[in-house]
Amino acid sequence: MLPQTEGLNMRDRLEAKPSMTKRAVGKPDEIQALTTEGRKQHLREQVEETASVTAGEDYFHEEPKDLLSEVLDRPNMQKAYDRVMRNKGAPGVDGLTVGELKAYLKAHWPEHKEALLNGRYQPQPVRKVEIPKSGGGVRQLGIPTVLDRLIQ
Predict the structure, then answer these.
(1) Which of 18, 37, 60, 150 is the 20 to 30 Å CA partner of 108?
(2) pTM
């Protein structure tokens, strides 16, 4: 018997009794065909299960979604926005500061989201800054725009 912490799938696999023996079917090719068909059916059932309605924090949405749509969902983007605000940082080549980001997003987010979903979004160039090193010399630093930091 497996510990209770082990997942059901693993426990089911290890404790499962074969439903068909080699003697009952007869030929190894038939056994392979049946187990392959069984795997396909199991995968179909798993896909159907993931297509069910899933509860979120404050909302419900239909599954499945593509990965980019999930990344651009409001709760995930809110986490990204909070991280950008917490990290602060200098503006990029566009001059947009972290403090101006909220107002900018209210006016322009739908356009940027559509461009991302359609594969047309192009990140802005990175602003290059030289930082002095303690031992002499300089180190180059690339500063992306605040919007690109949010999207990344």
Answers:
(1) 60
(2) 0.55
